TrEMBL record, chain A:
Record protein name field: Vitamin B12 dependent methionine synthase
Origin species: Aromatoleum bremense
Domain of life per record: Bacteria
InterPro entries cross-referenced by the UniProt entry: VitB12-dep_Met_synth_activ_sf (IPR037010)
UniProtKB/TrEMBL annotation, chain B:
Presence of keyword Transferase: yes
Keywords carried by this UniProt record: Methyltransferase, Transferase
Pterin-binding domain residues: 9-272
The keyword Methyltransferase is assigned to this record: yes
Alphabetized InterPro entries for the sequence: Dihydropteroate_synth-like_sf, Met_Synthase/Corrinoid, Pterin-binding_dom
One of the Pfam families matching this protein, by short name: Pterin_bind
Signal peptide boundaries: none
UniProt-recorded name of the protein: Dihydropteroate synthase DHPS
Amino acid sequence: MPCARGFDVLKAVDGLPEGSASRSRLRREVLDLARDEGLVEAAYSYRIVALDAPAGEWLRAGGEAFHAPWLLPESGRLTALACASCTIGAGIERRVASLVAARRASRALALDQLGNELLFEVSRIAQDRMLADARRRALTMAGELRPGDPGLALDAQAAVLRLADAAAIGIELNAGLLMRPHKSTSMVLGVGIDLPAVSWSRCQHCRSRARCRHGAAVAAAA
Amino acid sequence: MTTGNSFDIRIIGERINPGFKSTRALFDNSDIPGIQALAIRQVEAGAVYLNVNVGSQAMTDRPFLTDVIQAIQDVVDVPLSFDVPNTELFELCLKTYDRDAAGGELPIVNSITEHRWDAMDLYREHPFKVMVMASESVVDGVAKNNKTAEDIASTARRAALRLRDDCGMPMDHIYIDLSVSAIIADTEGLNRATLDAVRLIGSDPDLEGLHMTGGLSNIGQQLPAKAADGSDLKHCLENAFLTLAVPFGFDTVLGTPWRGYHPLPEDDYVLTTYRHFLDQKGSQALRAVRKFYRA
């Protein structure tokens, strides 16, 4: 089960667009804060798990079952699921709480926003690693679902985390399906033979899509 | 992300280059899986070659350059094109390149010019295909920039025949790189010269089989995102150039595979404006550029 931890993810978000001068200053402050106080403990774990049975509306892998028909490819053959979990640890959420308690709301919000960006970046790194891994096995990877998003119910969360061995990087799930550390995420991607690129995106139903900085950054990079 | 190219062209994926901000971040972090994923995405989007340019890091960190080449070849089976600043680094790239991993295909040395020909010394020991910059020539021993179609075409012809006759290189192993200038600063008719050179080279019977290529990302530099008709100006300019160049033999683009290049209809606003721009020079050309984004 591949996993990685302790890599520098702050550097990767350092060059992102910063907006107005005051936002830019605030962002610089929270970047320095995160670095100086060692608030980020980035980690990811993943596993590419072969399907237990031919792909159908229910996908069965590693003894778990997922109702994820969006992952069924238009052509090619789905043979496995890539399950991943990612976190940036609990340092940022604790510091956000202390900033809120100290009535430093704008700094707290900026630090929280930075935490989201860092988590996106850890997800991106994990996905890149899985893609390279799949390709080395002469497999393709397509589609991305996260428990709770359209296409995959939230109650799939526990199974995804089990398959990704999220416990190895310290992610726990409580009875309300809330992950701890809060700044954690999980995902499932389709893996198989000659899978075509999917025509859908987990973002397409998101109400924040038009004003999402992450989406804009992805579009700009393309 | 747009995909699907409807031109009959080959794409050399250009994204492994620190000129792209997102790629620079991968290099800055030595993010090898990220670079591998970028290679895979380009191939899945239709790239038949991948250009590898690690920027100035190639000069200071040679193990990183070889790691990148090996990592890319570990996950994709298309051949690579190497864009490095000197012959010593070309040699390192060629030695690192695993031809078997690319289905036996030769890599491309990107690039040589008439006055930077020394990379050809490597050809016997490490065969490759080559990209020749036709925008530069040597006159009386001095390098100069070509500004007319005739100069560009004669440089391309001279170089191609020299490669064929001196090195025994097949014509279809030669890629003539035609500079596609930014229109915003093109007051000397360089776009016109490039397109006319494409016609001259494409109609030269001695050069049959040779490829013509160029990077398109310069053409729309510093222009607004939207054209006056609301279309994506930079992308439409790339397509306008290709619409005029592909029928005359421009068959390879050093570009982003998911850009989705396609021919523009004759009445397309940007194509019509580009045609008008091509007929202008000096301040008239600058005025013509404004028509792209002002109604």
